[in-house]
Design a protein that fits this description.
The complex is a heterodimer of chains A (303) and B (401). Helices cover 74% and strands 2% of the residues of chain A. By secondary structure, chain A is mostly helical. Chain B is built from 14 helices and 14 strands. Classes of the chains: A mainly alpha (303), B alpha/beta (401).
Chain lengths: 303, 401
């Protein structure tokens, strides 16, 4: 392996990390952008998706189990998200600090529940046989660069999810309502939109996507009670750098952050590349406090 | 003292004796007991490792009680939970010493927990028996360090690797005190021995993304990786190495924090073929060890036994022997007596405490089998004298207590 393949390898890793960040951040971007709800338990939705995948793989075996796991993780966490919205978040609208505290409590409860049920050491999901190979690019300028198939799979999954969400927002009736509520909640409400139902749908969709992210993550690392904690901070970074409630901004920010930290690791350690990343984000926010794609939205200007 | 208090209440004394006889199954002199503290994390992240050390400690106490106790007294363990939180360890250590009047404490796992308890033991001049391998670079008269010093675990592993012909070594660890100090020492010795250090990388504790590290490993092409990653990070690391086409069979990994318990939790198939360096393996052929393993598994069926557990077990026996030799429970006299004990064997081979209060012990290198047990490949030429301050890394510092 040569220097140039290291750079190429890190570029690929950056995109791979970006795809995980994108999956983790999409749900946050949706609910934060639309409802101004900061869901501190979003990381635990990732964790829950991971454990649901683990249970599916245990029940159905390596090969079909993982495919089933993707579906179960999405549906299961979306249902839990809906439950959370109805029982907790709906009752705290317009009180961002209270929501923050309450969802943080949910996060702690879920972590401890996972610890009690599955134990403090993580459980492991083995990649299905159709994902356990590597793609190598021998015979080209990039000889020695081998790309794990699981990472390619996660990139494809993220692309499909992003495309799907984009289509829902742009082309469906639900998307129309989401855009209407996002633009002006009061007017949308006055015109007969059931804003509560829109909120519920968006929140459930967002947590479901986090569940998918957890499912994808289980292929490359163990599922532990605290797995969500290691991604939630980066997910928030992506949402803030991207610009609240913007899909294009979220995508751009995920790629930027993923490639930046992977690139920095060519020269320095992981800990220091995190320091550099956070410094750059702080500097960036001085110049573009609204993120890469700044949108004018009544939802953001009120309160 | 608490047993004097018992004597004034005959009824209570009888009840206590009856209870002792019931639970310990051996006749005990009326109310003649001595309390010791057992302080490990029974909850939280570290519980998985520390609960088993507590179990091994209690097993030794039971066995000593069954054979008549120490100085004619039955040992009563007071078990406390450090809750994986260093400040909780300090708090509970103080509680054990002041409130429960224990004569000594067995416990601690992470270096952070030991560092937090150190001032408490120094203030009260009580004695802590610490059972886990650590980074050295510490020398307190109030701690008995039975876990390996760097020259008893990591440096023997380096000798072994060099003997095997591995010339280029990559250092990988979690970003905290043990890996940083261990690698500092390793670097000095790799340089001194004329070998190549292929690279040095750290990931945050609990980190799970190794893609960049693996790319750097591929670029550096080391002969072997020395791994001081902790806990779950190992799962991610070995998983991503396998996915990148570098399983242990292709690029050997020597781990310093993976023992039988961790191998069981992580899953031996993922780690199969990787190496580990310790001062005890469950598979040691020593007949004393076979007895220890059988006794432990009779109480906890199916549970593997590993290095820190064996040290937790050893600490109780060493304390009891030192108390017998000193003829008192006084900390100052007990620690002096412990230093002057002859070689003894409780399952780790021949061991004794040196005058720096660390254990003279043998180093072993093992290779993980699919069964989750280690096949012992190598052992040091006899027991190694512990050196808390590595002369190459910390020149001029010595430790005599």
């Amino acid at each position: 392996m040569s220097e140039s393949t290291l750079v190429a390898g890190q570029l690929f890793n950056g995109i791979s990390v970006a795809s995980i960040l994108l999956l983790a951040a999409l749900g946050l971007a949706l609910s934060f952008g639309l409802m101004r709800v900061i869901n501190m338990a979003h990381g635990e939705m990732l964790m829950m998706g991971g454990y649901l995948t683990y249970l599916s793989v245990s029940a159905f075996g390596k090969s079909t189990g993982f495919a089933v796991g993707l579906v179960v993780a999405f549906v299961g966490t979306a249902l839990f998200g809906a439950f959370m919205e109805v029982t907790l978040i709906r009752r705290l609208y317009g009180r961002p600090l209270d929501t923050l505290l309450a969802t943080w409590g949910v996060s702690l409860i879920l972590q401890q529940a996972a610890r009690s049920i599955f134990g403090p050491i993580g459980v492991e999901v083995t990649a299905p046989p159709w994902l356990s190979g590597t793609l190598s690019l021998g015979g080209t300028a990039l000889t020695g660069l081998s790309i794990p198939a699981v990472r390619v799979f996660i990139i494809v999954l993220a692309a499909i999810v992003l495309g799907g969400v984009g289509l829902i927002i742009a082309r469906t009736r639900l998307g129309l309502l989401v855009r209407a509520v996002h633009a002006n909640r009061a007017i949308a409400d006055a015109l007969g939109t059931n804003t509560r139902a829109v909120d519920l749908a968006v929140f459930a969709l967002g947590t479901g996507i986090a569940g998918l992210a957890g499912s994808a993550l289980s292929l490359i690392s163990p599922v532990t009670p605290t797995v969500g904690q290691s991604y939630i901070v980066y997910a928030f970074l992506v949402v803030i750098v991207g610009g609240l409630g913007s899909l294009a901004g979220t995508l751009a920010a995920a790629v930027l952050i993923g490639v930046f930290s992977a690139g920095a690791q060519i020269f320095t350690s992981q800990s220091f590349s995190d320091v550099l990343l956070l410094l750059c984000v702080i500097a960036f926010m001085q110049f573009r406090p609204r993120g890469i794609v700044s949108q004018s939205s009544r939802a953001l200007e009120e309160g | 003292m608490s047993f004097g208090h018992f004597a004034r209440r005959p009824l209570f004394g009888i009840v206590a004796t009856a209870l002792c006889m019931g639970t310990l199954g051996s006749p005990a002199p009326a109310a003649d007991t001595v309390s010791v503290g057992v302080l490990q994390s029974l909850t939280g992240t570290m519980a998985i490792s520390e609960v088993t050390v507590k179990n091994a400690t209690l097993l030794a106490i039971d066995q000593i009680n069954a054979s008549g106790g120490v100085l004619g007294k039955q040992i009563v363990p007071v078990v406390e939970d450090g809750a994986s939180d260093p400040s909780m360890f300090a708090q509970k250590a103080q509680k054990l010493i002041q409130q429960d009047s224990v004569v000594t404490v067995f416990g601690g796992w992470t270096s952070a927990s030991r560092k937090a308890m150190l001032p408490v033991f120094e203030r009260f001049h009580s004695l802590l028996w610490y059972p886990v391998q650590f980074e050295g670079n510490e020398c307190s008269p109030d701690i008995m360090y039975s876990g390996a010093q760097p020259n008893q675990q990591i440096l023997p592993a380096l000798d072994w690797a060099e003997q095997k012909g591995y010339k280029s070594i990559f250092l990988l660890g979690s970003d905290y005190v043990f890996p940083r100090t261990a690698n500092l020492i390793l670097k000095k010795h790799i340089e001194h021995d004329g070998k190549t250090m292929a690279g040095e990388e750290y990931v945050p504790l609990g980190g799970s993304d190794f893609s960049a590290v693996i790319n750097k490993i591929k670029l550096a092409k080391p002969d072997i990786i020395f791994n001081t990653l902790n806990g779950d990070s190992n799962v991610s690391f070995f998983k991503q190495m396998a996915a990148a086409g570098l399983p242990s069979a292709k690029l050997p990994v020597m781990s310093f924090s993976i023992a039988e318990q961790e191998a069981k939790a992580i899953g031996p198939t993922l780690l199969e073929g990787s190496y580990a360096a310790w001062n005890y393996f469950q598979s040691l052929p020593d007949p004393v060890n076979k007895k220890f393993v059988a006794a432990y598994q009779a109480k906890y069926p199916g549970s593997p036994v590993d290095d820190p557990m064996a040290h937790g077990y050893l600490d109780v026996y060493a304390w009891a022997a030192a108390v017998k030799k000193a003829g008192t429970f006084d900390s100052e006299k007990v620690r002096k007596a412990a230093q002057s004990l002859a070689f003894f064997d409780v399952g780790l081979g021949q061991t004794k405490f040196a005058n720096n209060q660390s254990l003279v012990q043998t180093a072993y290198v093992g290779q993980l089998l699919p069964s989750g047990q280690f096949k012992i490949l190598w052992q040091s030429k006899g027991p190694i004298v512990p050196v808390p301050y590595d002369p190459l890394s910390f020149p001029g510092k010595t430790c005599v207590l």
